[in-house]
Amino acid sequence: MRLDKFLKLTRLCKRRTSAQEMIEVGAVRINGKPCKPSSDVQTGSIIEIAYVARILKIEVTCADETLLKRASTGHYRVIEEINADPDVRPW
Question: How does DSSP assign 6-69, residue by residue?
């Protein structure tokens, strides 16, 4: 499944276009590497998302699009959540 679509369906981003923008500016990484909106998300992938005031690190537990559309929770596990200074960009 595409990364931007995964972020939208899991409600980590409100809209797919905002997910694409975050990915393109480098605020999202898969397994520690920069990525593109079309990058493939698989079960077991580690995704890091840098929001304005926090950094969220998750592990994907389900990357099946059909299951994501049916249920809104249980598709990722939060590994770490760090509060960040909004003036400092983490990447």
Answer: HHHHTTSSSSHHHHHHHHHTT-EEETTEE--TTPBP-TT-EEEEE-SSEEEEEEES---HHHHH
Residue 1 is classified by DSSP as: -
pTM across the whole model: 0.88
Encode 56-68: b = buried (16+ Cβ within 10 Å), e = exposed.
Answer: bbbebeebeeeeb
What does the pLDDT look like over 26-41, one tens digit per residue? Answer: 999 999 999 999 999 9
Q: What is the reported pLDDT for 87?
A: 76
**DSSP secondary structure code for residue 2 in this structure:** B
Domain boundaries, the chain: 3-83
CATH number listed for the domain at residues 3-83: 3.10.290.10
What letter represents residue 64's amino acid?
A: D
Task: Give the whole-angstrom CA distance, residue 82 versus residue 64.
Answer: 28
